[in-house]
Amino acid sequence: MTMRKLALAGVSALALAGCAAVGPDYLKPAAVVAPAYKEFKGWKAAAPRDDALKGAWWKPFHDPVLDRLEAEVAVSNQTLKADEANYREALALVAQARSSLFPTVNGDASGTRSSPGSNTVAAELSASWTPDFWGKVRRQIEEQGASAEASAATLANATLAEQSALAVAYVTLREADSAKQLFDDTVKQYQRSLEITQNQYTAGVAAKSDVITAQAQLLSAQASAVETDVSRQQSEHAIAVLMGKPPAELTIGRGTLSDATPSPPVGVPSTLLERRPDIAAAERTMASANAAIGVAISGYYPDITLSGLFGYSGNPFLRGGSVGNPVWSYALSLAQPIFNAGLTDAQVAAARATYDSQVATYRQTVLSAFQQVEDYLVAVRVYGETIKIQTQAVAAARQAVDIALNEYKAGTQSFTTVVTAEATLLNDEQNLLSSRASRLTAAVNLIVALGGGWNDAKLPIVAE
Asked: Are 443 and 375 in contact (CB under 8 A)?
């Protein structure tokens, strides 16, 4: 009869454990979302089954070297390895929380031999279980599961950040390559100018100062050409580290800065909430904080523990076939907080405050995401317009150099006019190169701000 009562108590405990958990159920708070982007004009809207970026977001740049470099970031980057380990730790904490739903069973055995000829063997099987009457364990599982999902989103966001950092470093490297080519071409131009001044000086129609000025201008351009290696090598070193390699193991051949800037489909602002891993991480952290309120509230309720033991103790070697004395027990215990000087109240208040803080963090993350998209939309557009104007300025400056040189050779202009025209041309060409690099960098940042092809559908579900 007593064993039957124990079984009924266990069944009742299971039924009660299936009741709703204490604390608030999670409802995703609303965030401020504009109906459209302010800088959307001229951009392509995303549509279902559109050519949206998926995974390898750098592919639209059509650079095989960049493709090869980016492919190694997720594999060897040490920062990502740390984030991946944090995610595995979060999964282990979920499993740890789930284990509290089940009984703990222990087996004990012992043997004793003493004189004269006394042998004792004991074997016991014990179990204890604290049924989740109030849903504390389920809230803990919910809390740890949401934290694990946040960790997965953080890993995705870190991957995106490291990939974008490599892409920006690659743009800087190619800008340095193009700057080196620009200065090399300028050196050739200045060498021609020096030859003209020397010829003019030999013919007696130019001053020695013209030759010296041309020499100084040439040497300055040569020094600038050499100086570009600082930016190039540092960018190459940064790329190597992002790939998880020492700088000595990576050498990237020279190339030129691309003129192609992809135009990703932007979509409406509401889709950004699903396409940014940092927003997903903030939202899941918020959900975890909400579950923590329930864990804190469960402190008001008692813990009820069921325990039982069965075994035997005796001498199995005695004649007469005795198997020892059976040993058994069962118990029910209850622990109810009566006075803790307001500890539980403080824990609940702290949990609610943490949740409120995470709600604000989530909403600020959303606002910051919208700002980034708007910033890079306008940057890509303005740099595009600037490049058109600067291209015309370079063409005009190049024509001015040709005219100034011809007039100098004809003796109708001073060499100062030539120097001024050549300096203007070099400055315009540098500005054009800088704007092209800035536009590519803005395009990289825009794609990343749009989520880089990530979607919250990729987020693992571990809270159930």
From this structure: no
Helix (H, G, I), strand (E, B) or coil at 428: helix
pLDDT in tens, 185-234: 999 999 999 999 999 999 888 899 999 999 999 999 999 999 999 999 99
Mean pLDDT of 223-249: 95
Smallest CA-to-CA distance from 453 within 40, 161, 160, 162 is with: 160
Task: Give residue 196's domain range.
Answer: 21-103+133-301+343-458
Residue written as token pair 């030129």: 256
CATH assignment at residue 49: 1.20.1600.10
CA dihedral 208, 213, 216, 220 (to 10 degrees): -160
Assign 3-state DSSP to the chain and report helix, strand, coil percentages, each to 5: 65, 10, 25
- Would you say residue 286 lies in a domain? yes
Question: Is residue 325 a part of any domain in this protein?
Answer: no
448, 272 Cβ separation under 8 angstroms: no
Helices and strands in the chain: count of H runs, count of E runs? 10, 4
Give the phi and the psi of residue 331 in degrees, each rounded to 5.
-155, 155
Report if residue 90 sits inside a domain: yes
Which run of H or of E encompasses 306?
strand 303-314
Residue 169 clears pLDDT 90, i.e. is over it: yes
Whether 329 is in a domain gets the answer no
What is the total count of domains within the chain? 1
The string over 352-363, giving b where at least 16 C-beta atoms fall within 10 Å of a residue's C-beta and e elsewhere, is: bebbeebbeebb
User: Which residue type is seen at 351?
Assistant: A
CA 259 from centroid of its chain's CA atoms: 28
User: Taking Cα atoms as reference points, which of 158, 221, 147, 152 lies closest to residue 184?
Assistant: 221
> Per the structure block, which two tokens stand in for 65?
């070297």
